[in-house]
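Researcher: Hi, I'm a grad student and pretty new to this. My advisor asked me to get structures for two proteins we've been looking at. I'm not sure of the right format, so I'll just paste the first sequence and hope you can take it from there.
Model: That works fine. Here's the first sequence with its structure tokens right after it:
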Amino acid sequence: MKRFLVFALVFSLPAFGHGIEVFAVAEGSLIRGTASFDDKKPLKNHAVAVWDTDGQPVAEVMTDELGKFTFQNTANQTVRFSVTTIDGHKASYTLIHSSHAPDFASELGNLGTSETDSNDLEKYLAHEFATIREDIHRLETTNRFHDVVGGIGYILGILGIIALIKSRKS
């Protein structure tokens, strides 16, 4: 029994590797994105393939030193960004084009006193929403402490059930 527990504990330790993430937000027809490893280190000077909804290649863009890339979506279509590293890691992110995107300038009424003010307000709000979306994405893909504790508790619970069953048999 002791050998089994030692074996289970040794081989149930997590295997540490790395994956990649891709994220993008639209600011009008300009799409800004990032490509990074799971530990948030940027994927520097790497190709990002852009695909349409039919799986046809649209373009290929490069990340900069910070893992950031831009794409001008002149066709205003839904696009998928995909990255594949040399060692075989893959990630993709689909940015859905919404033809029903709100026209902030008209919905906010008289806040913009001129066309320029309305355009500035729309750009500012688009930037702020992009920042919020990026923060939400980062939080959703981060392993948190309670996730780790929950995993350990799950493993210990299974081992406890096995020990209980073995003790009842003897």
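Researcher: Oh nice, that was easy. Here's the second one.
Model: And its structure:
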Amino acid sequence: MPALIVGTQLLGEPRYPSLKGIMAARSKEVVTRSLADLGLDAADIGGAAARTKVTGQQKPPARGATQVVRGTAEERQQRIQQQRSILDSISEEASSLQRGLGTRDRARLNDYLENIREIERRIQQVERRNSVQVTTPNAPLGVPDSFDEHVELMFDLAAAAWQADVTRVFTFMMSRELSQRTYPKIGVTEQHHSVSHHQNNAEKMAKMVVVNTYYITFFAKFLEKLKAAEDGGGSILDHSLLVYGAGMGDSNSHASDPLPIVMVGGGVGTGHRHLKVETRTPVGCLWSTVAARFGAPKMPTFGDGEGAIDGLF
């Protein structure tokens, strides 16, 4: 029977086991069976005994951004070391572009290239530190030990991507639920999750204020970077819409209503407002409203939200 087998790009996406699956696998017995155990002979399996034959293979047309990675792990690592700088690989193109720009645009390009060089330098410093330190087996390569450094680096990468129009949408979860992180740098040595269940204790509530202020300070620095980056007749911040918030309005009782959300940027329209929506308005209504703002087809529902929020834009 003839068959056409088609592979999608998702075949190249890694699938990671869940913690539940890992723990279950540890208790499972690994059983090894021979061909004889299965009632098979070597002549009955493999390509020679196959009842199907591959008549041909056809790859999709190569795209400009596609790169086929070949070679052993050592060869790929060596290639990464040789091509580690983005700027070194485009130095000739950048120089040619600069010669054709006016004074103001040349200055903007120089600022952007200097930002990329600084990000590369910081990533390389992290790699050098990690190469001489003992890390846990599953620790991602290149993640800074310092939480501050990690968050600031992620925001800087996002700003650089927006400035170069590599992407126009990004999400960044700065902390996870049930976080056990402590913040001795700002004087909070108790775990984040424990502090969040403050039980209306004044001392714990004060610590929660310190932690929330600490997080939003990173966001404020990111906004300043976007505000300083020229984009057309204004800045990247002028032409953006950013949303900052969390999944709970009251972490002590796990209440999601009222849910404070900050919207920043020129995409907001009329700013400097405090908009109070009806009680128990699902956050899905907000995302439907934002989607419509950017030209998406009208969505009657999004999640558990129905309709849009009037007066937002």
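Researcher: Is there anything I should tell my advisor about the second?
Model: You could mention this: The mean pLDDT is 79.
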